[in-house]
Amino acid sequence: MVLVFVPPLLLLVSGSLTAPGQPPPPTPRLVPNPLSTDGYARAFELGGLGRATLNSLAVAAVAVPVSVLVAAWAGFALARISRRVTALVVAASLLALMAPATALLLPRFVVFRTLGLTDTLVPLIAPALLGASPLYVLIYYLAFRGLPADLYDTCRLADLTPVQTWWRFALPGVRPVTAGLTALSFILTWSNFLDPLVYVYDRDLFTLPLALRSLSVLDPTNFPVFLAGAVVATVPPVTVFMLAQRWFPHSDDSTGRLW
């Protein structure tokens, strides 16, 4: 996995440190000569990356926790209600996953335009109120259903409410799932290009993918400027994934157990 993903990242960083205004080298260089950080300064100046990064962070700071929270609530409810109702909801969720995302753009656009919410960041956050994706709910449903039945019986005997059971015992028991879905939700929210393109028109509200699009049309001699913007856009998802790994289950070679 390292051999697959690390070399492109190294070439990305190397290209961003090339001096702008020069013809692209005939072959990729791991260490450019001379090293220059002018591409980063020009990327923030020409593409407005500073404001776009803040906008993307604001959207992610709201959308990611809300989507994970709603998905955890819905998944826990599915794991505790009757099997017949659960089967119907799961089937409906699978059908919703089969619907192309582009098919929802027009009805969503009509709704947000009628409410006067276009050209704002609200349409980028609103899907989180529904758990962002049925996939998140189904993953949580499988995780909560995999917990021991004795745990739920004990909570019922202790006269705990469903919310107390979810918060004190069920949610801590699926911590790796929460970490994984948080990282996945952040990456998908951070890299979302289509929704901002449809709903946002004010340049001051552009998210980072839209800002990178404006840099992609620069002259080929200024490719380090675009690569510098790509590095800025890549650092947060990589950081979030590395932080989330501490909660992922790892196999211990000596015992074969999960820690």
TrEMBL record:
Coiled coil: none annotated. The keyword Acetylation does not apply. Keywords: Cell membrane, Membrane, Signal, Sugar transport, Transmembrane, Transmembrane helix, Transport. The chain crosses the membrane at residues 57-78, 85-109, 121-143, 221-244. Gene3D superfamilies: MetI-like (1.10.3720.10). The keyword Zinc does not apply. It is a multi-pass membrane protein. PANTHER family: ABC TRANSPORTER PERMEASE PROTEIN MG189-RELATED, ABC TRANSPORTER PERMEASE PROTEIN MG189-RELATED-RELATED. Residues 1-19 form the signal peptide. Pfam families: BPD_transp_1. Residues 53-244 form the ABC transmembrane type-1 domain. GO terms for cellular component: plasma membrane. It comes from the Bacteria. This is Multiple sugar transport system permease protein. GO terms for biological process: transmembrane transport. It is found in: Cell membrane. Its main location: membrane. Belongs to the binding-protein-dependent transport system permease family. It comes from Catenuloplanes atrovinosus.
